[in-house]
Amino acid sequence: MKYDTTIGDYIINYSTKIAGATESSYTLTGNTNLKAAYYCVVSDGFDSVRTKLVYTHLDSGLMLLNGQEYYVEGVVGNRVELSVEAVSTSGNLTYKWYYMSEEEYETYEAEGHLISGANSSVYSFIASKTSAPIFKCVVSDGITTKEVWCFVDYCIYGNIIDISEEFTATLEYSSIVEDGKAKTPTVTLKNDAKTLVKDKHYTVEYKNNVKAGTATVIIKGIGLYEGEITKTFTITAKPAVKPSEPAKPSITSISNAKVTLTKNSYVFDGKAKKPTVKIVLNGKTLVNGTDYTVTYSKNKQIGKAIVKVTGKGKYTGTVTKTFNINIKVGKVYTVGAYKYKVTSKSEVAFAGLKKANTKNVVIAGTVKIGGKKFKITSIVNNALKKKTKVKSVAIGANVKKIGKNAFSGCKNLKTITIKSTKLKSVGKNALKGINSKAKIKVPKKKYNAYKKLLKAKGQPKNVKITK
Prior knowledge:
It is built from 3 helices and 44 strands. By secondary structure, the protein is mainly β.
């Protein structure tokens, strides 16, 4: 009896005889070495005849019980669980999980990115703003392989918080002696109100944490937390046991060194500032990383940032320098869903929306920019001009001025609530084109004054001012 994996006109030339198959029947074994076609040559010693080709189809019985694709909703900050239900009559099942972006999926060529360690029928993760939207699980029983596609639709309930701005990270220890094993000090991430949970609110990555030197700990927010904090700790060399100790090199303190920064003042932009440090001691310029290390703190927010220089190698001691991070008057900053223009060292003006499809606008009394609280005392000209999606606006208690055309063209704006009792000025056409059924609610004690102040600001005649 003969078989061949090639099907075509040349099957006789490329067939192979099966050893021991000399009977009138032959049983195929259920394994992955089955070939494409089989035939039998029957001979009576004088003549021979070849049977028709018999084609094989290998069915291991692998079945996907929950289909080849499904959709789930992922809430940012919560755990998302993906699962595959499969059965097979042949062998043990293996699983490999992959993730990919929508752009990669649409190419129809991308295999995806293998997720290390994800080798069971269930894969779960904490959803974040940057989580992949598409996952693929490759299921195999050793004979047959099938794919299950999982599509995740993410949504956000709550505010995204930057851990580098709102929380302080501490390590279990700052120094430890090397022993050939990776050092992973426990991280505590907390503020006055809350302590975050590892792998739920943040992840931790360690680098250069085996050999003597400076190890790095990278803390990254996940889920409803974003941002990154970097901490370091020292791994000191284990002292060698020797018959006699050689003379130790002299150690010089850097406390009397001249330390200068390349820049002593920055404009706040939300990014960490790290001016280069130059150290000169006794006429010699020291080398960063060899003779000293530099750490920065409070170098992202408005205020006084700290640079700490620590001696290394032949040098010891510490020197501390400071530089300023200032707010810039006239600069526009985005905080949450809104934009604000700095008008003084302590005040800002509401300057517009981050996204044009915002429906309900709330202008608070204050806003925190770069860790500093500013009063919102005005609304700039054209702040919400032609923002047709806006339906309501609440004006905070510190607003004194509303610029011209501030709400002009907001045709769906039906509710304006003025909480401020300090309003002194409303610009021309500030209310032009708002909804004809709009109502403007003002503080009771300011009703008469505000009714006069809001008169003829472009609003339709049917717009009502109420207490």
